[in-house]
Amino acid sequence: MSLFDRMFGGQGTVRTNAPSPAERHALVLYKYDSCPFCRRVLAAIDRLGIEDVEMRDTMMDPSARRELRDATGRTTVPCLFIDGQPMFESLDIVAWLQAYKEGALAG
Ligand SMILES: N[C@@H](CCC(=O)N[C@@H](CS)C(=O)NCC(=O)O)C(=O)O
User: Fold this and answer.
1) Which atom of ligand 1 is nearest to the CA of 35?
2) Are strands 53-57 and 27-31 parallel, antiparallel or unpaired?
3) The overall pTM is greater than 0.90
4) CATH number reported for the structural domain that contains residue 31 in this entry
């Protein structure tokens, strides 16, 4: 493997926001169950067998909703915090989880 590959993650590609297979990430999902976009993310978590996601329900728990608003200025769900950084958009979240799982399996 070249020095470039060792520094930047292989195959000459600079990887910035890609999930790292070697690390576990702290994952916290803000959601509520009747939200169809949340259900898309929950189904992906289930299908992928990802177990280490802390769930915060913004419908059942007003303090979770406040936390989300205070941290991001928004109350939109789903929102996945990855090591403290919020990611909105269910399709982006599903794509990230998929890549995380593939990395975790490969690593
Ligand atoms: N395009 C977004 C849509 C998210 C969305 O519209 N979520 C609704 C619940 S179904 C929501 O949180 N609405 C309340 C708000 O934006 O404060 C996604 O795919 O995640």
Assistant:
1) 10
2) parallel
3) no
4) 3.40.30.10
